[in-house]
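Hey team,

Sharing the Cytochrome c oxidase subunit II run so nobody has to redo it. Sequence (234 residues) first:
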Amino acid sequence: MGTVVGIVVISYMVYNAYKYRERDGHEEPMADPLQLGELPQGGGDGKKLAISLTISAIIVVALIGWAYVLLVDVEAGPSPSADPLEVEVEGIQFAWQYEYPNGHTTNTLRVPEDRAVTLTVTSGDVFHTFGIPAFDLKADAIPGQTTQRWFRPNETGTYQAQCFELCGSGHSVMESDVIVMEPTEFEQWYAETGSGTNTAATGNPSDAGSTPADRTANDSSAASIQRVVTTLQQ
Ligand SMILES: [Cu+2]
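Structure output:
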């Protein structure tokens, strides 16, 4: 969009610069300035001005309308009939922890495709900001407060969640995977997490996660945090 606008504006500018370039025998425009009370001659009755104002107004109003419609949808939240998946998100230096309605705690957010997900975001220590750029989602994570956000992933895959507020030495590694799964695959995974294998959630990210994949993710994020901390200490 920006590129198209840039090309149009710059082309028009270059065209006019060429069209009105200084040529031999040209007249100095201000050689005979208007006197007080004298009306300027010529021009197209302000036609160009009217056209450009109208086009600008249409573009601006269209953008406002578009943003408004999007915001109404976002603010309204998912309809209760959509049966949103509710996940609690807690930021701690320096990891994200997700808790599902069945009590399962993990450091990798797994969600089903094509179903609304409601996130209740908070922090266990300092200010953080939770965000998933792929879903245009960002929420303050503040100790003692909760922030609600929702999104509806429409394509399976692995995305990134990360912290968007400088929160300490491990801020840059405060990220986690967001895995959007096929609904049936998700249901299967979720049913397994409910079997009570993960009652040992302590709030320590390295203890959380009940599947081997989660543990691997935890190990790798814990290892990368350790690397950063070690680097900073040197
Ligand atoms: Cu942070």
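Residues 199-217 have pLDDT under 50 and may be disordered.

Ping me if you want the raw files.
A.
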